[in-house]
Sequence to fold (193 residues):
Amino acid sequence: MTRNNRYYITTAIPFVNARPHIGHALEFVLTDALARYHRLKGENVRFLTGADENSLKNVQAAEREGVLTQTLVDRNAAHFYALRDSLNLSFDDFIRTSVEPRHLGGVVKLWQACDQAGDIYRRAYRGLYCVGASSFTPTTNWSPACARSILLRRIWLKKKITSSACPVMLTNCWHSSSQTNCASRPRRAKTRS
Fold:
């Protein structure tokens, strides 16, 4: 994103349920190349990366290793941060989602802005949660990985069926290509079933 000679770029914030792999390295190097290119153009660049430490994948990986989740994410986040030296990356910031108060503050501000815009409501939901996709997935949309996971671990089905009123965020209106259509949309009620 460019604004007033400023350029902001970020990698995806990866789950740290394992050490980084070649796919992470590729993403980080390509993002770094873009950041360096914009710096060469004289733009004020902010290049962010970090670690998503709040995921079921991290919890399951820690359980498999027999360690506390925080121990696992501390160790693996350090491996991701170490890519800075081994790949000569130029990121300006590395955020960790479980230990940095500024992350929580940013999330709270985002949720409050979405709520004030009427983009959050509660509704009843019942479905399967696919850990691999990190999302609730209707059975008609299972990826091969989700289907394999379910077929290989029948207990998974019993644990992952969820039925409750959940907050739902309307994210499509936050994309720049959708803002024109969403600007005139009617405000949604804060709760619905």
Summary: The radius of gyration is 20 Å. Helices lie at 22-40, 56-65, 69-81, 83-86, 101-116, 144-152, 154-160, 179-183.
